[in-house]
Amino acid sequence: MRRLFTILTTLILLFAVSCDDNSNNDVNPNEKPNTEQPSEKPNDEIEAENNKIYYTTSNGKKIFPTDSMFTVFGANLISNTYENGQGVLTFDDTITSIGWAAFSYCGELLTSISIPDSVTSIGGSAFSYCTSLTSITIPDNVTYIGEYAFYQCSSLTSIAIPDNVTSLDLFAFAYCTSLTSVTIGNSVTEICNDAFFGCTSLTNITIPDSVTEIGWGAFYGCSSLTSVTIPDSVTKIKPETFYGCTSLTSVTIPDSVTSIGDWAFFGCTSLTSTTLGNSVTEICNDAFGDCSNLTSITIPNSCTSIGVYAFGGCTSLTSATLGDSITKIEEEAFYNCGLLTSISIPDSVTSIGVQAFSNCSSLTSITIPDSVNEIGEEAFYNCTSLTSVYCKPIVPPTGYRHIFHSNASDRKIYVPTESVDAYKTAQIWNYYADDIVGYDFDFGMVLEGRYSYGLSPLATTTKDVYSGMLQVTAGWRF
After folding, report:
1. Quick one: which of 53, 233, 300, 437 has the fewest CB in 10 Å?
2. 373 three-state secondary structure
3. Cβ–Cβ < 8 Å for 360, 316
């Protein structure tokens, strides 16, 4: 009996030891990680540790990535350890991708991370809201960086995009408010919408020649950006691309660009000069609006359209040269350009929009070419220094309220001699009848007195506009 008891006791002990050994070999990825460290790496370990991700945290504790690890990393997580100031995520196979939201919302915990060279894709929101992440190295094999990948990584100071990446997706680095420098690889063809939106510490960026498209708001609110080079490969500057880049001092638009979109440079308050390429066909609404330090602009002959408020609020603009293909100056195009003293409207223009030059308080004279058939409401309203309006059309353009209200008190409107009566009786123009004066546009003469055409004598007082001398002439007018 004692012998049987001894045998049973021995068998129970052996079974217990066996179970304990088996439990140590089972790894549950949901459990707290095994803190044992191997004494030496085996020679056949996966090359370059492509099954491991190293990281550090601000509190010296582990991070807990999302579930479904196979989807996120292309392999199964087998352990997560943190010892001696470093965390290690170990997987059962080579890691090929950092998937959607893999480390998202690590908040103030994750401070740095090392991604293995085997990774080719960084998915959407992979590191979004990692607000304490200060550095990361993107491996050379990465070809794709997804939307919101580093969104609001507000402690990240620099980033290098490898040459294999072809596109920077939506909001990829948006609100990385500590980001001061970015290196973009030479294979990137597209910088998508809002890619660097709100990167308020970014001071400069070089866009490689491979880039053909820069998306909406790509650099919106990059308030420390002082310079940017737009390559010849870009054909359009899309809306809001450089909106609110308040430190940008100059920009050159290459000849390849045909369109400057709505609000493209709106509120670039340090912009003093810009060179527009010879292929620009349209300057859209608000494109350079409120660029309060822009002093001059030359619009090329290729341009056919100046949009609403395109240069509105450019309060330091003293001169503007308009190309000879422009057909319409839209409403508020030069609104509140208080230092603009003169502007030449080309003969191609047929319409001047509502408040196009309103509040241009330094404008002293304006010539309206004979091609113009419509002048919008308050087009020259509150141009308080405007003394001379030279209106060439034989037929009075269609006018709307207050075209020339609140001009200089001695302002005159000079019209073709044969059209004086037509202007004085035309709707809206009749309001300015007392200020309308006949003018000979062929000889640059103001005609102040009786005049007639055909085989009849002409005796009148004339004034040479250019010399200011008064003359009395008599003769025949044909």
Report:
1. 233
2. coil
3. no
Conformation bin of residue 441: beta by default, left when phi > 0, alpha when psi is -120 to 50: alpha
Does pLDDT of 31 surpass 50? no
Instruction: Tell me if 263 sits within 8 A of 245, measured CB to CB.
Output: no
In Å, how far are 53, 266, 277, 302 from 255, measured between CA atoms? 46, 21, 4, 11
Within the chain, what is the greatest distance between any pair of CA atoms? 155
Secondary structure (3-state) at 208: coil
Please say whether the beta carbons of 441 and 431 come within 8 A. no
Which residues sit opposite 181 in a β-bridge? 158, 204
Place of tokens 């269609």: 398
| pLDDT for 68 | 52
Residue type, 133: L
State which H helix or E strand residue 121 sits in. Answer: strand 121-122
Q: Which residues are 285's β-sheet partners? A: none
Predicted confidence (pLDDT) at residue 82 exceeds the cutoff of 70:
yes
Phi and psi of 21, rounded to 5°?
Answer: -65, -45
Q: pLDDT tens digits for 126-168? A: 999 999 999 899 999 999 999 999 999 999 999 999 999 999 9
* Pairing outcome for strands 374-375 and 398-399: parallel
Helices (H), 313-429: 420-425
d(CA 17, CA 227): 70
* SS3 category, 420: helix
Percent with pLDDT over 70 in the chain: 82
Return the number of other C-beta atoms located less than 10 Å from residue 16's C-beta.
Answer: 10
Alpha-carbon gap, residue 350 to 374, rounded angstroms: 7
pLDDT for 71 equals: 58
SS3 329: strand
Q: How confident is the model at residue 465 (pLDDT cuts 50, 70, 90)?
A: very low
Asked if residues 386 and 409 have their Cβ atoms less than 8 Å apart, the reply is no
Residue 180's CB: how many other CB atoms inside 10 A?
15
| C-alpha to C-alpha distance for 210 and 188, rounded to whole angstroms | 6
- Residue 334 near residue 360, CB atoms below 8 Å: yes
What span, in angstroms and rounded, lies between the C-alpha atoms of 160 and 167? 13
Contact 313, 290 (CB under 8 A): yes
Structural contact between residues 172 and 191, judged by C-beta atoms closer than 8 angstroms: no
pLDDT digits (tens, 9 = 90+) for 106-131: 888 999 999 999 999 999 999 999 99
d(CA 26, CA 15): 17
Beta-sheet pairing, 388-391 with 412-416? parallel
